[in-house]
């Protein structure tokens, strides 16, 4: 494994990044989140126990690996405090292992209120279907240069500053016809959280650079996915940060020439939560079956995920945008029972064949998937531990994904547990 690896979601999020990070953490000294916030929900299953992380990197379950929440992340201090408590409750040591960048921006209660208010005000067809965690408004404040950064958590003036900001937000909330905050109890709660988090605030860019110089291995944990990236996703139905591999540099302070390898995480089919175009979506019994077998319900909001067949156009686009060296392909076991599995190999639009994702949303929304049918393997894959044990039909499905994307598969996941993972000795499904 290269010393610095970036792991990114290659579809619309929920590809199984948390699970793969947990497996790879065995060989890393540091795991780093670089964008997004607690809109993410990353699931790690260890010995049958299910843990869902939103802000803390999924490396936390493998001490002594250290975890960093980078400057590109937006951090809700109340959510982070609660999540730390949950992880401790599970018996995992956190002190001295979790660091929060002093340059990360804070998500404050009014960001959540503005997020929810905006979604309510938008009409059908305009609504983004956000997680309502205040992510968009927090990044707005950052870009507007009025945000509050984690360094402020340790400032003795934090309680005063937070009162001032809550009062100002109340003026706006009243203007928009929303209930204002009760400033005093909320300011106290936030100040208590700030005091708890302050010891973990650090200059993490410096720490990571020093770690690199010592030859330690760093794993970047992308949140969301390429199609939710603010630049390369299905704008405006996206999140407000750069989920793609390039975000790892700006979101952590580690320069591009340090990055040695990019792993893209792909689900063996496709899902999406929230609104926006999704060419291979299935609004039928097959889509329902994928949701049922795959347990496709949001790890953060519990919303049912929209499901569809594997989209090789999206995967190919992600491979290029992120410079993916190898795929981690997850949830192959979910397709075990299907008589036929389909792959979308291209889009059809106005009599033209498209091989990549168009920027124009109206074009994307009108694209029809061109499918290729593959006979299903119809046998359980969960017990499989080596690519040699794959049934030939499963193998040909995987080989076809490699061909269509031009990227070899290096990790195969056939169940939610650590043990349901095959790390190939060398990327590429053997013929
Ligand atoms: P993330 O946001 O990319 O970390 O993914 P989520 O945690 O939101 O969703 C992935 C879901 O699939 C979780 O419930 C995982 O436990 C589960 N999962 C991950 N890999 C596999 C797999 O290979 N097979 C099955 N059946 N479930 C998996
Ligand atoms: P992980 O890291 C799937 C989606 C929301 C919505 C859009 C914008 O678990 O893969 P936001 O709250 O970010 O402003 O919402 O992005 N979204 C996700 N979908 N997985 C996620 O994270 C997501 N985080 C945000 O559903 O469509
Ligand atoms: Mg998720």
How many beta-strand segments?
20
The number of distinct helices, counting runs of at least 4 residues, comes to: 12
What is the first-to-last residue Cα distance?
A: 23 Å
Average pLDDT, all residues: 97
For the record, what CATH class of the largest domain applies? Alpha Beta
At CATH level 2, the architecture of the largest domain is Alpha-Beta Complex
Total tally of structural domains = 2
Strand content: 15-25%
Low-pLDDT ranges: none
Name the structural class: alpha/beta
Question: How does this model look, in words?
Answer:
The protein is of the alpha/beta class. The protein has two domains: about 5-95 and about 205-425, Alpha-Beta Complex (Adenylosuccinate Synthetase, Chain A, domain 3); about 105-200, Adenylosuccinate Synthetase, subunit A, domain 2, CATH 1.10.300. Helix content is about 30%, strand content about 20%. The protein has twelve helices and 20 strands. The chain has helices at about 15-25, 75-90, 110-120, 135-145, 160-175, 185-195, 205-215, 245-250, 285-295, 310-320, 360-365, 390-405, and strands at about 5-10, 30-35, 40-45, 50-55, 65-70, 75, 100, 105, 200, 220, 260-265, 270, 305-310, 310, 325-330, 340-350, 350-355, 370-375, 410-415, 420-425. A ten-stranded mixed beta sheet has the order 9-7-5-2-10-1-11-15-19-20, sandwiched between helices. Strands 14, 16, 17 and 18 form a four-stranded mixed beta sheet that branches. Strands 3-4 form a two-stranded antiparallel ribbon. The radius of gyration is 22 Å and the shape is globular. The protein starts with a strand and ends in an 8-residue tail after the last strand. Bound molecules: guanosine-5'-diphosphate, 6-O-phosphoryl inosine monophosphate and magnesium ion. 6-O-phosphoryl inosine monophosphate binds near residues 42, 223 and 239.
């Amino acid at each position: 494994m290269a010393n610095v690896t970036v792991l990114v979601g290659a579809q619309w999020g929920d590809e199984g990044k948390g699970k793969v990070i947990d497996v790879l953490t065995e060989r890393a000294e540091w795991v780093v989140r670089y964008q997004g916030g607690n809109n993410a929900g990353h699931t790690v299953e260890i010995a049958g126990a299910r843990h869902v992380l939103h802000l803390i990197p999924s490396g936390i379950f493998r001490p002594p690996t250290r975890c960093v929440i980078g400057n590109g992340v937006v951090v809700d201090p109340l959510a982070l405090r609660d999540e730390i408590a949950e992880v401790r409750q599970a018996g995992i040591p956190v002190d001295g292992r979790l660091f929060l960048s002093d340059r990360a921006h804070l998500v404050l209660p009014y960001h959540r209120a503005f997020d929810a208010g905006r979604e309510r005000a938008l009409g059908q067809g305009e609504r983004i279907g956000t997680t309502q965690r205040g992510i968009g408004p927090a990044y707005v404040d950052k870009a507007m240069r009025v945000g509050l950064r984690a360094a402020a958590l340790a400032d003795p003036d934090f309680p005063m500053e937070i009162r001032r900001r809550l009062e100002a937000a109340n003026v706006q909330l009243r203007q928009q016809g929303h209930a204002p905050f009760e400033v005093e109890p909320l300011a106290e709660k936030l100040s208590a959280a700030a005091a708890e988090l302050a010891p973990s605030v650090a200059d993490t860019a410096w720490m990571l650079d020093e770690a690199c110089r010592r030859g330690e291995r760093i794993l970047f944990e992308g949140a969301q996915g390429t199609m939710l990236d603010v630049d390369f996703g299905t704008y405006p139905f996206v999140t407000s940060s750069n989920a793609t591999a390039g975000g790892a540099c700006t979101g952590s302070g580690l320069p591009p020439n340090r990055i040695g390898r990019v792993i893209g995480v792909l689900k063996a089919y496709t899902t999406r939560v929230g609104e926006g175009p999704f060419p291979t979506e299935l609004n039928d019994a097959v889509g329902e079956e994928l949701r049922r077998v795959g347990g496709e319900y949001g790890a953060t909001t519990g919303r049912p995920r929209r499901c569809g067949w594997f989209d090789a156009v999206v995967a190919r686009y992600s491979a290029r945008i992120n410079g993916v060296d190898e795929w981690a392909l997850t949830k192959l076991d979910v397709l075990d029972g299907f008589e036929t599995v389909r792959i979308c190999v291209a889009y059809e639009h106005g009599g033209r064949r498209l091989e990549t994702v168009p920027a124009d949303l109206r074009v994307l929304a009108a694209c029809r998937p061109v499918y290729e049918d593959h006979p299903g393997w119809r046998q359980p894959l969960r017990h499989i531990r080596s690519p040699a044990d794959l049934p030939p039909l499963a193998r040909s499905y995987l080989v076809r994904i490699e061909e269509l994307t031009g990227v070899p598969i290096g990790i195969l996941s056939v169940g939610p547990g650590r043990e349901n993972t095959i790390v190939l000795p060398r990327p590429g499904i053997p013929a």
